[in-house]
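Example for tutorial group B:
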């Protein structure tokens, strides 16, 4: 019988560079509204997987789709506003 042994040094040797950087964490934080809106949209779709969508389900999906689109537009507008030099819009 072979025993499974974890080699702690080999597992944790690369830990410091495997963690996300501060810049990556900031980017995730900036994209969090889009991520959450996409999760809401997926939840709305998941509810209707095993049955025909009712009118209430269709409204929930439309609202979630609009929120996801609005979150993406806001993210793009924030990114465009910060990257254009001289205040050009």
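The residue assignment follows.
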């Amino acid at each position: 019988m072979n025993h499974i042994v974890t080699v702690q040094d080999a597992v944790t040797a690369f830990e410091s560079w495997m963690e996300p950087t501060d810049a990556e964490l900031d980017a995730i934080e900036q994209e969090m509204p889009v991520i959450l809106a996409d999760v809401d949209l997926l939840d709305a779709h998941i509810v209707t997987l095993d049955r025909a969508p009712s009118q209430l389900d269709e409204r929930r999906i439309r609202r979630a789709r609009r929120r996801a689109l609005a979150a993406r537009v806001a993210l793009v507008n924030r990114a465009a506003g910060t990257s254009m030099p001289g205040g050009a819009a």
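Helices lie at 8-12, 15-18, 22-47, 55-83. Compare this with the pattern of hydrophobic and polar residues in the output above.
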